[in-house]
Specification:
The complex is a heterodimer. Chain A is an all-alpha fold. Chain A contains three helices and no strands. Chain A has helices at 2-25, 40-68, 73-110. The longest helix of chain A is centred in the last third of the chain and has 38 residues, at 73-110. Chain A starts with a helix and ends with a helix. Chain B is an alpha+beta fold. Helices cover 65% and strands 11% of the residues of chain B. Chain B has helices at residues 2-29, 32-61, 68-73, 80-85, 91-112, 114-120, 124-142, 165-180, 182-193, 200-231, 241-266, 270-293, 308-328, 330-333, 345-376, 385-405, 416-439, 446-475, 481-491, 493-518, 624-641, 645-655, 658-663, and strands at 520-526, 531-534, 537-548, 552-563, 566-578, 583-587, 589-593, 598-607, 613-620. The chains are: A mainly alpha, B alpha+beta. Chains A and B meet through helix 1, helix 2 and helix 3 of A and helix 1, helix 2, helix 6, helix 11 and helix 17 of B.
Chain lengths: 111, 664
């Protein structure tokens, strides 16, 4: 029984080592690709997308709450304007964030 | 094959150590392939812990008493279900279960978010590995379940109080909850370490947090059901330190689940949310420490051991790490958004958070005060139920009130006039219920009367939310009432799942108030043929019997039960004397009236030689609503957790191309 356990234990260890080493054994392409980390452009873009989604979701929720009577006409009138402006600003910001990327891609294609 | 179990645990320890060290180096230096290798080590560790677990299960199934663990916790006569449940009945096995669930959850979380972990939050692997490493260390160095000895003829058996079906399910549920809280903690800390403090870690861990919270909540209720049936004092929650240990992280996780919505909707409370996640995780470790260390006298004192200092050290390291991470990332975490009004949904969530955290902290103080007192003054004190009851009422009733008000307040700001209009119906119904109850004699328990009135208030709000929402959906062309209703829930599962969870809390409140404020009890010694009356019930003692059970000698008192003069059934209550364990347990008799939700609860305290019996007969009104609340709670949580394809598409769109941009 002890021998079987030792063989099984050794087999488990070997399998684990092979599995763990596999990513290191695959052929390197042009050197190891670095991890991306926090790219400032990427962070700004995600923030802009979050802002857009948040503003659009808030508008949708406000419409629904108004329809259910949770938000009065008066409150709706006061809230909808700033929310629409926020959504429009977020969309503009996003467009601004995307422009350098699109221009970069265009340059890649034409270059 | 204990050697295989030991080898598997050593292999798991090595693999996790590799995942931590190599994973941290890879995250620090930006090495993708090294991180992939560390991630594989985490997966392999799960497999190795799985092998160790199978070895232990096999040893339990075979009654292999050459393993000290098996001999200490089982016997040949122990029923099979309990024999296998011994896996988590003792310290070493429960630590192994912790590690199994943790490596499994970590592997699943990392595998399901592989690109995110590999490219955006590379610190997730070493952080989650760090937690697993602690448990692997305990299992390899301090408390191995594979220690061997010369096999005795029979084992010592299992503590009788653990021989209850609810005890088979209760610990794994709690472990799933405790361990599940590691996932949001690890992703939150990885987000801080990677300086990625956007919403992504919240989006990824939302379901993990909900699942962990659900397991923890359901596990607490299973424990309450166990205590109700097995400990046999007629109550369901005794503010025992170990019960509180599970309640505290649940309360903090509840606060997090609410405040995270404020971050999603308003980009506020970012620091607060990270603090809550770290707090819930630290409290889940503290809960395990309390259960396992034996530092506090508890109904769970069968778990006492010497691993306490290790746990305390690890909690201190985790807390220090979290504090340092939060402080160093404060500039990125600060939000520019401010609260617009104190009458708004986000303000209601904030109030709810303050009450929840205050309740958790007062419970924590009650749990640790005896330790502090003994350490500082050398005086052993205990904090009893009145302390906890007081704070449960002081913070709990406003929380219930907020459950009724919060859903009808609009985001950003709401006018008081609009709020008053929304609350008119709930207030009217609550007042009507209060007056009716008062007229019906419920004024004997003022706290109970207030509880029921608030319960009616919240329940009306919930029903109205569903009705108004369905009507609005119908008005925008969603077909009939049923399609409008299902569309309403499907389009906002978290909100309406949350309302179902709120309804379960109301059920729990009604049940708890029923048993706490309106139960009746009587202690009586009865000779054969004599009767006792309690509430509407009359029980007649017809005699006792004795028989040999699977692993115990069972003595039972037989009682015929009458209500309002009508025979409604029988109840048996007695004691079991366990052979191997050489211990006696109370086996209470419970007769449930499902229609009324009440129990007739009988404890046979003592059997006399002359054939008479000392009984405690209790009528617990509405207690079964507490257990029903557990099922409704799980239903609501399932609705809230159910994946929403539309939302998934939106999020995929939001994060699509992010990697490409970063690589560009």
């Amino acid at each position: 029984m002890e021998t079987v356990a030792l063989v099984l234990g050794a087999l488990l260890t070997v399998l684990c080592v092979v599995f763990v080493a596999r990513p290191l054994l695959r052929p390197a392409r042009t050197g190891e690709e670095p991890l991306e980390g926090a790219n400032p452009a990427e962070l700004l873009r995600v923030r802009a997308l979050e802002r857009r989604d948040r503003a659009l979701a808030a508008l949708k929720e406000l419409e629904f709450d108004h329809r259910t009577g949770k938000v009065s006409d008066e409150d709706y009138g006061a809230l909808v304007g700033p929310l629409r402006r926020e959504a429009a600003e977020a969309l503009r910001e996003l467009e601004h964030e995307d422009r350098p990327e699109r221009e970069g891609l265009k340059a890649d294609v034409h270059g | 094959m204990p050697e295989l179990g030991r080898a598997a645990l050593v292999a798991a320890f090595g693999l996790i150590l590799y995942a931590v060290v190599v994973g941290a180096y890879a995250a620090w230096r930006g090495r993708r392939r090294l991180l992939d290798s560390a991630t594989n080590a985490l997966f392999a560790a799960f497999a190795a812990v799985g092998v160790a677990s199978l070895v232990l299960l096999a040893a339990l199934a075979r009654n292999d008493f050459s393993l000290d663990y098996v001999a200490r916790l089982t016997s040949r006569e122990l029923p099979n279900g309990y024999t296998l449940a011994a896996f988590w009945s003792g310290q070493e096995g429960s630590l192994l279960l912790w590690l199994l669930v943790l490596t499994g959850a970590a592997s699943a979380a990392v595998a399901l978010n592989r690109r995110l972990v590999r490219e955006v939050l590379p610190w997730t692997v070493p952080i989650i590995g760090g937690v697993a490493l602690f448990f692997a260390f305990l299992l390899v160095v301090v408390a191995s379940p594979f220690d061997t000895q010369a096999a005795p003829a029979d084992g010592a058996g299992m503590n009788p109080s653990l021989q209850n079906p609810y005890m088979i399910a209760h610990p794994p549920m709690l472990y799933l909850g405790y361990v599940g809280l590691t996932v949001p903690f690890a992703f939150a800390m990885a987000a801080l370490a990677s300086r990625r403090v956007d919403e992504r870690w919240i989006v990824v861990t939302r379901r993990w947090t909900l699942a962990a919270w659900t397991f923890l909540g359901f596990g607490i209720l299973l424990g309450a059901k166990w205590a109700y049936e097995e400990v046999g004092w007629g109550g369901w929650y005794a503010w025992d330190p170990v019960e509180n240990a599970a309640l505290m992280p649940w309360l903090v996780a509840t606060a997090f689940l609410h405040s995270v919505m404020v971050q999603e909707k308003k980009d506020m409370l970012r620091v607060w949310n990270v603090i809550l996640v770290a707090g819930a995780f630290a409290l889940s470790l503290f809960g395990t420490f309390l259960t396992r260390s034996g530092v506090i006298s508890s109904i769970h004192s069968f778990t006492q051991s010497s691993i306490g200092p290790f746990f305390l050290g690890f909690i201190a390291v985790t807390a220090a790490f979290s504090i340092v991470m939060i402080i160093t990332r404060l500039p990125q975490l600060r939000s520019k958004t401010r609260m617009e009004s104190l009458v708004s949904r986000e303000a209601a969530f904030l109030y709810n958070n303050l009450f929840l955290v205050a309740l958790a902290l007062t419970i924590l103080w009650g749990v640790i005060y005896p330790l502090v007192s003994e350490a500082v003054r050398g005086v052993a004190v205990s904090v009893g139920a009145p302390y906890y009851d007081f704070f449960a009422i002081v913070f709990g009733l406003p929380l219930v009130l907020l459950m009724g008000i919060g859903p009808v307040v609009a985001w950003r700001r709401a006018s008081l006039r609009s709020l008053a209009r929304q609350l008119a119906w709930p207030t009217g119904v609550a007042l009507a219920v209060g007056v009716l109850l008062l007229a019906g004699g419920a004024g004997s328990s003022p706290a109970g009367l207030i509880g029921y009135t608030l319960g009616a208030f919240v329940m009306t709000t919930i029903v109205l939310e569903f009705v108004r929402g369905t009507r609005a959906r119908k008005s925008i062309g969603s077909g009939g009432w049923w399609p409008a209703f299902t569309g309403l829930v499907a389009r906002n599962r978290r909100r309406y799942g949350g309302y179902v969870v709120h309804a379960s809390i109301v059920l729990l409140l009604v049940g708890a108030v029923g048993i706490g404020g309106f139960s009746s009890s009587r202690e009586v010694r009865l000779d054969r043929g004599e009767a006792a009356e309690v509430g509407d019930y009359r029980v007649v003692y017809t005699g006792s019997s004795e028989q040999r059970g699977a692993n115990a000698q069972e003595v039972r008192a037989h009682l015929e039960v009458f209500r309002d003069g009508e025979h409604v059934g029988t109840v048996e209550a007695g004691k079991n004397s366990y052979f191997a364990e050489e211990q006696t347990s109370n086996e209470v008799g419970i007769r449930t009236d499902w229609l009324r939700g009440e129990d007739l609860f009988v404890i046979a305290d003592r059997f006399y030689a002359d054939g008479s019996v000392q009984l405690q007969v209790i009528v617990n009104p509405l207690v079964n609503l507490i257990w029903l609340a557990g099922l409704v709670f799980v239903l609501g949580a399932a609705v809230a957790m159910w994946p929403d394809a539309r939302e998934q598409r939106r999020l995929a769109q939001r994060f699509a191309g992010e990697g490409a941009l970063a690589r560009a």
